[in-house]
Amino acid sequence: MIPVLGESATISQTTLNFLASLKKDPEFTGTVRQDYGYRLVTATDNSIYQVIPQTVIQPRNALDIQKILSRTELPEFQSIKITARGGGTGTNGQSLNDGITLDVSKYMCKILEVNLEQGYVDVEPGVVLDELNKFLKPKGVFFAPEISPSNRATLGGMCNTDACGMGSRVYGKTSNHILSLDLVLSDGTAFTSQSLTQETLKTLKSTDGIIGRVFLTVDQTVTEKKEAIQDRFPKLTRFLTGYNLNMVYDSEGKFNLNFIIAGSEGTLAIVTKLRLKLTPLPKVKQLVVAKYRNFRDGLKCAQFLVDFNPIAIETVDGKIMSLARGDIIWDKVSRYFSDPGDETVQCVNLIEFSGMTTADVERQVNPLLLALKERQGKDGEANSFVLATLAEDMANLWGLRKKGVGLLGNVKGARRPIGFIEDAVVPPTSLANYIGELTALLDSYGLEYGMFGHVDAGCMHVRPALDMKDENDEKLIRKITTQVKDLVIKYGGIIWGEHGKGFRGEFMPESFGQELYDELCKIKGAFDPRNKFNPGKLCTPFGSKDTVTKIDAPTKRGHLDKQIPKHIREDFELAITCNGNGQCFNFDPDDVMCPSFRYSKDRIHSPKGRAGMMREWLRQLANAGYDPSIPDTKTTLQDPDETYDFSHEVYSAMQGCLSCKACTSQCPIKVDIPELKSRFLEKYHTRYRRPVSDRLVATAENLHGRLSLAPGVYNLGLSMPFAKDIIEKTTGMIDPPLLSNPSTLSRLKLKSPDVLDLKRLKKLSSEELADCVVLIQDPMTALYEAEIVEAFVELCTKLRIQVFVAPYMENGKAKHVKGYLKEFKKVASRQNQVLKDLHALGVSLVSIEPAIALTYREEYLQYLGKDHGGYKVWMPQEWLSKKIDRLDISKTLKPTTPQHFVLFGHCGEKTASPSYQKQWQDIFKNFGHTLDVEAVGCCGMAGAFGHEKKHFEESKGIYGLHWKDKIQKRRNNRQNILVTGASCRSQLARLEGYTTSHPLMALNQSLEVIDT
Ligand SMILES: Cc1cc2nc3c(=O)[nH]c(=O)nc-3n(C[C@H](O)[C@H](O)[C@H](O)COP(=O)(O)OP(=O)(O)OC[C@H]3O[C@@H](n4cnc5c(N)ncnc54)[C@H](O)[C@@H]3O)c2cc1C
Ligand code: SF4
Ligand code: SF4
């Protein structure tokens, strides 16, 4: 039985007093998160560090932030430290600190105003970059700076790291696109910063208090140290982030503080609103994919490619290419890598051109294509190249590049790619030589690494693989960082060329020179004399005793992870290997990842949050002497009471998970939260009693299977007055489904004489067997929607495919979801035997419900190991699309009038089988119909999840986010909506009040047998 896990990392009394005082303020509207779980989720980014904040405050507006900061001026609260946080995607601990974290991403995420005439958009700092650009796209404009984590990084974070990425050579950095910033200063004063005339500057300098002090200090520095600044700041497109003294005065003599704030990493002020410049969206883009035999060739070509003036040139190395081949992205890009010799490609350059017309873009692209052709295959030149012109293809190719970090994280073994020197920049002309020396350096330590990045900007991302649980590897962080810093300085570059400095501030004096560094400290002192903003980063107020935090000082994740014994780490690898890159914080409601986070906007309820909670749970269990790999002999069931137990926090995080499995395929590391959840629940309930609903869900497959022998009685009972109320009150379950109509079931038996007659199968020859199919019944269609089974049988019969319906057997999915793992394994072993026997006959196996078909492929394989029968249970479209080409339906079947359908797919089907869309479309085309596939995320039902009353609001909310609008706009053509998931159909039935068809039903109805 698991032990009770007490409180850890307690909150200081001063912070508690501060929070109490804040909560009493009637004008404060933000949320305070003191729970350990939320602090834990905020303790990591994509770096090696784990720094637990005292608490997390989520403000709703600038006034809340003013309330917080003005309160920190009171004598009793002057030790309070505040660090802002957006998407938390830093790679060097940029948003990590041990004071209070100000999380602006939860509520301050509204797009406020767009003014196309004047070319600006106003946003709150928590708006995510992709979200903004999705909103702007129909208006023909965009926010130009682009970064890899664009689906989760916020504009506030981008401003504070002065972010940029692909396209920066042409578009510049975030600071080049800021028109004004609303700020809250360290004493709570609100101020709007924008480009100023000398006259206004003069007035501001003479203002009392913080504003006068700031303007005086900055102006004095940039005026008096002009020469030193020009001498010292390298002439690179990406030189530095933060306190950019070189840009304060523009060529017309206007003064702009925004260049000091941009890239200051929250050390000077809190940004509460941004007015951003809009750029016309190019109407046409084309992408050249150039492939090289070795990495150095790809880099050496940088200047040759830059001369064609593309928007972007991005590079991916052979290591990432080989990892991409095992990822779902490969399905979408593989045809661009099918030239002879492409398997051995060691470098790919993606070169993008854009313009307002095709002719305009072709004028730019054609000379490059000609030049590449002339040089093709020569020593040091591209081996082959190919042009992508379709928007979808280009997006997928960029998707491959954006996945670089994630893919690298997917390498196996204890040493994992670590970001700590990954954003160094040198002049592009020196890139090949710099990388040559860098690789020699990394090779001298015997390290593996992968590379990708912006060859046109001289910025190559490199992640050496280290085991941060190993002391010797940990020591390499300082050694390598120092050596790389020296190397980039030698080449006229800088170590923090893109992602900001984070905990690398100690290298600032050397990079800037002591004279200028002192000036930066004076600026920090003017803005933040008490060093309350993100202390330890960048610099300290001039003259203060505080110091900048050294790279090896903060707690590292590896230190905590190594407290978990090795065998447990290996057993729970899925939780340990989450590298925190935050891809699961994807904002896009059309994407399947991760519905519970998207609905709640609570980072605990994300794959990263849950993996982090699991990791900490394992650590605490280990420290309490409990080994979760040993089966429990003792259980004492009790109801959770008021006593604090960290396991309750983990339980609550897991409760929000729909077990939709999007993370298992979409997370680049393949972090499998449903599996972790099941394993956690199994252990949690060795101590704490299960709710009735768990038992009911876990036994429903079996129980309803028996009841389906007399469905009328059950259905009658369910339709009695108060029956549903009683069920809800006693079990916590709502909207229980009716069993299939008895007449459908008996018709099914009559219509297909072969149904349930497995003995006949064994009499068939191997050729006959190869041509027939066995339907493995799933609980959803077999028990509640037998008309779909009937449609499948009829369709196969019309297609002259012999079909057998295997007797209904429990699959065990529900048991797995609820963490009845021993029972699941028993059920799986039983069903495995049946499938094994059928597979041995050489017959195809199909299961209609995607969630169930995938259980045979994933959980069965995992739990049965070498006992698994090696069969594959196909989803209908996978099997039909293989068959359909070989069937000539025209002689025997008459298609009805061509129709147009719209398919709403099931999450599992989409993620496990990326070709599902094309497969369904090909099948429908073959039958003379057209099929559109709607991009939707999760429907919110996910098996029994939405039937549990406690999840109803979440279930409905997720439906509202992803499905509602797209369904409702088709309400007049509802008969053409096709839905593959049983859960999705039942969600539609209860929330929209009508039933929808499975594509198999539409196909069946659309064919008539020709009378002969
Ligand atoms: C896989 C991966 C790829 C990356 N690729 C790129 C890339 O291509 N280009 C690039 O530039 N960066 C890149 N980064 C780094 C990172 O994504 C950027 O720095 C990004 O701008 C951070 O945005 P965020 O919302 O996550 O900010 P956070 O990480 O939350 O915060 C960043 C800094 O800004 C401060 N801050 C946040 N909001 C505010 C506010 N409202 N007021 C004051 N201070 C604030 C924080 O205190 C912190 O110091 C990458 C990171 C990862 C993990
Ligand atoms: S769960 Fe996966 S996608 Fe999310 S942060 Fe961890 S590794 Fe990245
Ligand atoms: S299974 Fe679905 S809901 Fe649960 S963490 Fe993964 S993506 Fe999120």
Please, could you describe this protein's structure?
With 1012 residues, this protein is α/β, with parallel strands linked by helices. The chain is 42% helix and 12% strand. The strands form 7 sheets. The protein has a 7-stranded antiparallel beta sheet with strand order 15-12-14-13-17-18-16, with helices on both faces. α18 runs antiparallel to α19, α26 packs antiparallel against α27 and α33 runs parallel beside α37. The structure holds flavin-adenine dinucleotide and iron/sulfur cluster (2 copies). The site of one iron/sulfur cluster has 15 residues, from α25, α26, α28 and α29.
Features of the shown structure:
1012 residues, alpha/beta, 7-stranded antiparallel sheet, 48 helices, globular, binds flavin-adenine dinucleotide, binds iron/sulfur cluster
Main beta sheet: 7 strands, antiparallel
Q: Uncertain regions: pLDDT < 50 for 5+ in a row?
A: none
Bound molecules: flavin-adenine dinucleotide, iron/sulfur cluster
Treating each run of at least 4 consecutive H or I residues as one helix, how many helices? 48
Shape: globular
Report Rg.
Answer: 30 Å
Mean pLDDT value? 92
Could you give the distance between the termini? 70 Å
Strand elements, count: 27
